[in-house]
Design a protein that fits this description.
Blueprint lengths: L16 E6 L10 H16 L5 E9 L2 E8 L2 E2 L3 E4 L7 H19 L2
């Protein structure tokens, strides 16, 4: 009798990524808005720290200033602050902000 093998695959692991923006109405149109901030953060974290569970709560303090609380794998990190001095936030500054958050997440996720 021929032997048969059953292929087994592990279930796909889902990692939690939550992003919330508070005060998004203060964002200038050039920033892309609250959805653009969360999309940039999630994309940057996926590139630098794939498979890491994180959440980010972004507060828009002014059109040129953000404050963020990040939790990585259940551990709260110190508040991150970001400001643009010579203009309001735009797509480029949001990208830099997201990269900064991603670097923080990657460092916090290392054993």
């Amino acid at each position: 009798m021929p032997a048969s093998a059953i292929a087994m695959t592990a279930p796909k692991q889902e990692y939690e990524h939550h992003c919330r923006v508070i005060g998004g109405e203060k964002l200038p149109a050039a920033s892309g808005g609250a959805k653009a901030i969360c999309a940039a953060i999630e994309e940057a974290v996926a590139a630098r720290a794939p498979n890491v569970r994180f959440s980010a709560k972004v507060k828009v303090l002014r059109p040129s200033r953000l404050s963020t609380t990040v939790v990585v794998n259940g551990r709260s990190l110190p508040e991150q602050k970001f400001a643009v001095m010579d203009r309001d936030l735009n797509a480029g500054s949001i990208r830099r902000f997201a990269n900064s958050i991603a670097t923080t997440v990657a460092k916090a996720a290392k054993p």
